[in-house]
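Today's session is about reading a structure prediction critically. Students often jump straight to the picture, but the first step is always the sequence itself: look for stretches that repeat, for charged clusters, for runs of hydrophobic residues. Only then move on to the predicted structure, which in these notes is written as discrete structure tokens rather than atom positions. Here is the chain we will use throughout the hour.
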Amino acid sequence: MSSITETLLQLKDKNITFDHENISECVIRHKKSLVLYGKLTYTPDCCPNCHTTNGIVKNGTRQSRLSLCQISGLNAYLSLTKQRFYCKICQSSFTAETPIVDKHCFITNRLKQKIMDTFTETISETYIAKQHNVSVHTVRRIVDKVASTLKVNHNTQLPHHLCFDEFKSVKSSDSAMSFIYCDALTHQLIDVVHDRKPSTLLDYFARYDTQTRKAVKTITIDMFRPYIQVSKQVFPNAHIIIDPFHIVQALNRELTKHRVHVMKALHQNNRRLYNKMKRYWKLFLSNTDTLSSYPYHRFPLFDWMTHTQGIVDYLLEQVPELRATYDVVHQLRAALHNRDFDRFEEILIWAKQEAISPGLRRVLRTFKGYLPYIKNTFIYHHLTNGALEGINHKIKVLKRNAYGYRNFSHFRNRILFMCKLYVPYTVPSTSLVA
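Below is the predicted structure for this chain, in token form.
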């Protein structure tokens, strides 16, 4: 084989001889394609049937058309003439084999590798099959066959810091939500479980030995109480951390609900004020230190020049029933941002005397119930579920692009491919953890 062909096609088999004078262009499957020609022959060491070294003679050839990676945007094939052999001892026949393609297969391993490379993207398997000129069933077989190497080994050690979360599952699953967890430091996905029921998670984590589970130091979760129950039973030495994103999300949600409730009362009586509150809703959620007090500008719906801080102050003056809820939400967010747990706890105590919305009052009661775990949020401020939320977003995009999945096992394999096929060499330093 010439070094040029070996380098360009990545067909590294010295037993293949290419016909460089005969490269044709023809139509295959209604598409213009390139066809290369080659011959595979060698002297076999022994008969694969009886393992004798003598008595093997050549016995004709067999033609195979192997699918290659695209060349210059055209589908490419290798018309390979394989040598046939006959054993005089056991009277059996066999065909010459090559490492560039599996036995009884017509898709080269290099093309399979290229297909696997695309599994890291959030694109559908139908599109992958179309781009590589193979069938959808071929793509699915590659996913299910190779994904077994990416599945978690319960005999290995768990990371010291874990993140728990869930995502919307498929119809074939027993539960509406599936469980997912990853390493809090390296952000590498570990595994996906078909549901998030406590019984299922207890059985799943029980596969790890006791010493491995005792070595886990922290678990970052949202405010889903079954996760706390499972964590206490399975990981006795782990500190449970409430993800700060979910704390801020709960506060913002109740502030928005109360603002919308107040706006509905203004819809008929004061339409101008209603329009102002609707247009500048983002300013209510902005951090107070990001609101500017200068310079003055013209803003739509305002007859005078003002600034973003002036807009918020004006709207709160016009709607005083929103002031208490706004102040409590932003003071709690500021305490969380400044990592001041004493201030956060102090606000929870005096806020119940304020005229806040019923929804926010309910959220604050929830915070009091989770206060020991929220305290860990302030201590381990570098550990969040942000990476896992990003993985969940990729899963959502993958499912949308594929118009949904029906089989959970196949969906799980695709997720493992997307997140675990290539693991980065660099690992973040553990010094980030308090």
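Discussion point for the tutorial: The mean pLDDT is 91.
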